[in-house]
Each structure stands twice: as C-alpha cells, then as structure tokens.
Input
Amino acid sequence: MMNFEKHRYEVLCEDQQMACFVRYFLIAHGANPRKIFVWDLPMQGCGEQYVREKYPKLLQTMRSRNYEKNWIGIVCTDADTRTVQERIGKLKDQCEAAEIQSRSGEAVMMFIPKRNIETWIRWYEGKRDTNESEDYGHFYRNRESDCKPAAVAMAQNFRSGVFPDGTLGSVVLAYEEYRRLLRGQK
Output
C-alpha cells in the first residue's frame, strides 16, 4: 500500500476549484500539504486546453534525471461534454504532437470528472440525483474551499473501495487510476 505522506505531488489542473479538491483529497490520505505543488493555473482562456498543452511538460519534468522518484503527478481536467476516454485521448494526442511518449513509467494519476469537478462535489455531498450530463458549475460560486467535505468523502470512499449503486462513471474510472497507482503500476 502506498504511503501518501512520503510522496511529493505535482498537480496540473484547470482551475482553483480543482486544485482545492485535489489538495483536500491528498491531505485526507495523509499527504503533507507542503509537498503538494500545484502548477500555475490559467489566468484566462480554456482550462482544458491549458492542461492539455502542459501535460507533455509535466511528463518531461517527471522524466528528468534530476527529478526525485517519489513524485506523483495528478492531472485533473473536466471531460465536459466528451467522454473520459476522449479526454485521455486528447492528452495522448498532445504528447504525440510534442513528440513525447505519453504516460509510460511515471506515477501519473488522471482525475477526469464528467461533466465538471462540481459534479463530483455534488455527488459526494450526498445529492444522489446528480448526473454526468448536467452542468453543476453554476451551483458552486462560493469559496473553493467549501469542497473539503466532498473531497474527504471521496478519499474515504476510495480507501474503502465500496461504491453505492449509481456511482458516477467518471468517479469509478478515477478510482481505477487510484488503484493502479497504489499497486505501483504506471
């Protein structure tokens, strides 16, 4: 089992809400907050495009010979109206265009909520009528840190590995990424 406390984290995400959610998720697993590094967030424009364009750079950074081997990368981007697999395909395409091999031996975990991160927040707040086609972003205009209970609930859910009927498909795919990382598979 992976010890979250001993690792350092590179978080590449679209916006502050995602950054807060991932940070709270990691801390709930015992990660040291001082070892969580969030890449600069886009100031304007499309967050998905920003993550897609920075993804090859994240991989290059993790592959550099001076890079510590106890680093874990977390890529978090919304699927929006696409599928999670399509979003992953876009990330791979960006690597190909940059002539960089996509994720191979690096400890990189993909969190791709469908439709957006607010979908996961709503689900883990206990609102079981949540679906992955409706845009819930407009319901969450409060402080980004308000997502902490939802992120902690997701961390607890992932540790138990038991999911209620109707669990969102993108949450299950994120759990598969989490399990792959825990097993040490890249």
